[in-house]
Amino acid sequence: MMNIDPQSRTPIYEQICRSIIELAANKLLLPGDKLPSVREISKQYSINPNTVSKAFGMLERDGIIYSVPGKGAFLSEAHDDVIRRNAELEFDQCVGTALKSGLDKAKLIEIVENHKENKGEAT
User: Fold this and answer.
1) 73 - beta bridge partners?
2) How would you class 16 by CB atoms within 10 Å of its CB: exposed for 0-12, middle for 13-18, buried for 19 or more?
3) 47 alpha carbon, distance to own chain's centre
4) pLDDT digits (tens, 9 = 90+) for 61-95
5) What is the DSSP letter of 96?
6) Can you state the percent helix, strand and coil of the chain, rounding each to 5?
7) I need a surface site. Which of 18, 19, 30, 69 has the fewest CB within 10 A?
8) pTM score, two decimals?
9) Which stretches of the chain score pLDDT less than 50?
């Protein structure tokens, strides 16, 4: 279900967050779907429960999931808006870095168009 690589330089809690966001973006998790418990995830992936709790806390803070005491964590109805907003912020930072490093607007557009073509999306 989740893609966790203990050898990655990316912290485990970030990998958990990204995995849940990807599952939601790919419609493998739908609004209102219950997430596995902290205990289940920590056991399945041999991760410290505090790390999973940290990831859940970040996702909840960002509005991607919500918790119901005694019931668990669920995917939020508003997760799409949050994911899009976060993607826009990350993209903006990447574009800024690319422009500072000398890439011009035409090259950036070419990169985006190539990415869309490789993903099978229409322009």
Assistant:
1) 67
2) buried
3) 18
4) 988 999 999 999 999 987 677 777 777 888 888 88
5) H
6) 60, 5, 35
7) 69
8) 0.71
9) 122-123
Decide: helix, strand or coil at residue 73. Answer: strand
Joined tokens for residue 77:
């109805």
The reported pLDDT for the residue numbered 121 is 55
Distances (CA, A) of 70 to 7, 37, 52: 33, 11, 17
The top-level CATH class assigned to 12-77 is: mainly alpha
pLDDT value of residue 89: 81
Contacts of residue 52, defined as CB under 8 A and 6 or more positions apart, other chains included, come to 13, 16, 38, 41, 42
Dist. CA 107–CA 76, nearest whole Å: 37
Q: 104: which DSSP letter?
A: -
Give the separation between CA 31 and CA 105, rounded to whole angstroms. 37
